[in-house]
Specification:
The complex is a heterodimer of chains A (about 450) and B (about 350). Chain A has 2 domains: about 220 residues, Response regulator (Rossmann fold); about 160 residues, Response regulator (Rossmann fold, 3-Layer(aba) Sandwich). Chain A is built from 14 helices and 13 strands. In chain B, a hairpin with a 2-residue loop joins strand 2 and strand 3. The chains are: A alpha/beta (about 450), B mainly alpha (about 350).
Chain lengths: ~450, ~350
């Protein structure tokens, strides 16, 4: 009987604040799923700081978006799917206008719920590649690129360096990947490309539990002598891989990480030997942008940021957090314009995302000129498959290279369509799209 | 005061040996069931049902499963997570191949697949004991996890490599998939857990349970009085894995609605093992206590700062939660090394003789 009291008490304790929250003043409630704890915190902290600080800056400088303050509340997930779903359920009562799961595992859980709860998901360059198909996934958005775009851009880079796609014939390309859905994502695309361009694909899976013990794997790599290696890792796996690559003397400029293998702390532990390591990127690095200067002025200097020191601002993942926040804010602005309301709902933001069109001029207007590629989404295309940039580690920080890579779209798009269809087919009763499509404006 | 057994006479052996010999206990169980079946569905929101009660019940069932093996039979297993995974993947395959059969039947049937795998990996238990057996089951954990990641047939060749739970209905009401409400899922989970707990209670109080316990207490003596070790131990593995498998299938189909193989990693095995140890080895109620302490307590702690306006960052709250839960576990185990179930029993005993201390 005592147990039931506890349960009742819990019920009351959880129900009361949820009821109170709905009666608050006008605001845009955005739950931020973050992980500042756990084994992936190293990647999670800078990203979360970037998002937080951009929202705080807008609140301080402009009083929010369109005059409505943003209430960005962090919810700690620890990169744990269970806690992510818990965060989702516990914030649902406060009418979130968008969900940013910041974990492929959590995204997969939430995709089916988005349409039911009418809250769009923005999984920026992570999550399910197939969700780029807006006809099957009206509530899920993953701009600016999918993992398949990333892998194809890597092949284009290799071809550029070798001197053309025909030179790839007979080469060996290795994929060092986390042995989990996230890491295995590029395999079908790379296999298809290997057939088309005649290179040999070698897979080097790293089990999650063995992330920091890759010595034997790199001995295999030394034996196989691949010409290129694409690194699709996360968390502690990346610095370990780069260190091991340096140890066997693998040429750093032929080791290319996808954009989630581009944290400043990935190549840093390997010291000078990691100089030349390349990473794909979807945002610029550094603080040389008016908006980021404003973050320094309004947020960091006033002690309202969680960054531990000022030079963390402008790191690659910090700026990626800013990019994610900027995409959300632009989607809100578009939603405000389309709906004529200041206080938009999840349904409005979905329309906002679908009509998102950030041109180069628009990036300049919001103080982020050349910060990221122009993003234009549509009802059918929730991704954009945009240009991908490349950054190179100079031994102490990332340097942007002039190279921009276009994904090999004619290979990626059919794969996305068939994957989206098979997802819908596997999930019997997957709802047909009923959401009307706005006329592009 | 209320908790007295004065005047409750037992006139036959069966009544004396009943699971709940005291009237107040029976009333207590009835009240808990009424609350679970009537009050919670009426007052519960999605957060209470989906985030607290459904996982609590599922973890309790998994803990019961492990308790049958570790607590009752004395065989230490670290493969719980993998056995749960077998249940989940079996359920996915079954409902893919036979989509028209009721999903609840498949959730229960998937337990048999888990059972079979459990028996296979339980074979070494005849020759090795204690920590050595733990290592053998650890092998099961790693091998099965490898299978979940590497055999695409198991997850229907989905590109994401994750289980994607399809929509299944029961009498027109969605049971699984995104449109299933937390209420229907909660009631399904509750019914399965209540029924299986009842079955487990009957098993452990009967002949099989005594065989298990005698093997646990001293297997040589058990063998001498005519208990066949081989069968008994394998039966324990089979029943235990059955429970874990059903818990795993429920976890993916009635709670998560989709999962990566990572869900069934070694962490899951440890989590369940901790629930069993803290709740109380060799008790069924302890499985519920352990699951509540390990799963619900951190959630409750996390809610405290936000709900009472304490200005603390979520990450700091998370770290504090770890510290507090860790400290509490140590406190509980120091106060009562036999787990929360033993504390509960002592409490009840004290109540019976209250206000006298003896």
């Amino acid at each position: 009987m005592r147990l039931s009291y506890i349960a009742l008490g819990l019920a009351v304790a959880t129900a009361a604040p949820l009821a109170a929250a709905s009666a608050q003043a006008a605001e845009l409630y955005i739950p931020l799923f973050t992980y500042r704890t756990g084994p992936y915190a190293g990647s999670g902290i800078p990203f979360s700081n970037g998002m937080d600080d951009y929202f705080t800056m807008l609140n301080e400088r402009d009083g929010g978006v369109g005059g409505v303050r943003i209430n960005a509340e962090e919810c700690e997930t620890g990169y744990d799917t269970k806690k992510g779903v818990e965060c989702y359920d516990s914030t649902k009562g406060k009418h979130p206008i968008i969900t940013t799961p910041f974990s492929t595992g959590i995204t997969l859980q939430l995709i089916p719920k988005a349409a039911v709860d009418k809250v769009p998901i923005l999984s920026m360059a992570y999550g399910l590649s197939a969700s780029a198909d807006g006809d099957q996934f009206p509530w899920v958005f993953n701009p600016p690129d999918t993992y398949w775009d990333g892998a194809s851009a890597f092949i284009r880079h290799a071809a550029n360096v070798e001197g053309g796609f025909d030179k790839l014939k007979g080469k060996t390309i290795g994929l060092v990947h986390l042995d989990a859905p996230y890491g295995k994502e590029p395999i079908p695309l790379l296999e298809a490309l290997a057939k088309d361009y005649g290179f040999t694909l070698k897979l080097y899976p790293v089990p999650g539990a063995q992330m920091q013990n890759q010595t034997s794997l790199w001995l295999d790599i030394r034996r196989d002598r691949p010409d290129w290696i694409y690194l699709q890792g996360w968390g502690a796996m990346n610095p370990t891989a780069i260190k091991e690559a340096a140890k066997i003397g693998f040429p750093m400029n032929r080791l290319v990480g996808n954009w989630w293998a581009g944290n400043d702390d990935d190549p840093r532990p390997a010291g000078a030997e990691s100089k030349g390591y390349l990473s794909l990127d979807i945002n610029a690095v550094g603080t040389n942008f008016p908006a980021i200067q404003d973050i320094l002025k309004y947020v960091v200097d006033k002690g309202k940021s969680q960054v531990t020191s000022k030079d963390k601002v402008g790191e690659n993942f910090y700026d990626r957090g800013v990019l994610n926040a900027a995409l959300i804010v632009e989607a809100i602005r578009t939603a405000q314009r389309l709906s004529g309301k200041k206080e938009v709902t999840g349904e409005d933001v979905r329309r906002g995302l679908e009509n998102l069109n950030i041109t180069a001029a628009r990036w300049k207007e919001i103080g982020l000129e050349n910060f990221a590629t122009p993003v234009k989404l549509s009802c059918a295309d929730h991704n954009g498959h945009n240009l991908i940039s490349v950054v190179q580690w100079d031994g102490t920080k990332w340097q942007k290279t002039p190279e921009t890579l276009e994904p090999i779209k004619d290979k990626v798009l059919p794969l996305i369509q068939s994957a989206a269809e098979s997802y819908a087919k596997a999930n019997t009763g997957w709802p047909k799209r009923t959401e009307a499509c706005d006329k592009s404006s | 005061m209320l908790y007295r057994e004065v005047g409750q006479y037992k006139s036959n052996y069966a009544a004396d040996m009943a699971v709940f010999p005291i009237l107040q206990d029976r009333i207590g169980i009835a009240v808990i069931l009424v609350i679970a079946y009537v009050v919670f569905p009426l007052i519960g929101n999605d957060f209470l049902l989906n985030t607290i009660l459904i996982p609590f019940l599922i973890f309790s069932l998994a803990a019961i499963g492990l308790n049958l093996l570790t607590g009752y039979t004395g065989l230490l297993s670290l493969g719980t997570g993998a056995f749960m995974g077998v249940g989940a993947y079996a359920c996915l395959k079954l409902t893919t191949i036979f989509p028209h059969v009721n999903i609840l039947i498949w959730i229960l049937a998937s337990g048999f697949f888990s059972s079979a795998i459990g028996v296979l990996f339980g074979l070494p238990s005849l020759r090795i004991k204690g920590f050595y057996l733990a290592v053998a089951t650890l092998a099961a954990q790693f091998f099965l996890e490898w299978c979940f990641i590497r055999i695409p047939w198991l997850y229907n060749y989905s590109v994401s490599g994750a289980i994607e739970v399809p929509l299944r209905t029961f009498m027109g009401i969605p049971m699984t998939g995104p449109t299933a409400t937390s209420l229907t899922r909660y009631l399904a989970v509750l019914t399965i857990v209540v029924a299986m707990t009842w079955v487990a209670s009957n098993i452990v109080h009967g002949r099989i349970g005594r065989m298990w316990m005698s093997v646990r207490d001293m297997d040589l003596a058990a063998e001498l009085i005519g208990i066949r070790l081989f069968r008994t131990k394998l039966l324990a593995f089979a029943v235990s894995s059955f429970y874990c498998g059903v818990a795993g299938a429920m976890m993916v189909f009635l709670w998560y609605g989709g999962a990566e193989a990572e869900v069934f990693a070694i962490d899951q095995s440890f989590l369940i093992l901790f629930m069993v140890i803290i709740g109380g080895l060799g008790t069924l109620i302890g499985s519920f206590f352990g699951s509540a302490l390990i799963y619900i307590l951190p959630i409750a702690l996390r809610l405290i700062p936000a709900n009472f306006g304490i200005p603390i960052r979520p990450a700091a709250a998370e770290q504090l939660t770890f510290v507090i839960v860790g400290a509490l576990i140590i406190v509980f185990l120091v106060v009562e090394p036999n787990g929360l179930a033993r504390l509960w029993q002592i409490g009840k005993q004290k109540l019976r003789v209250w206000p006298f201390p003896y």
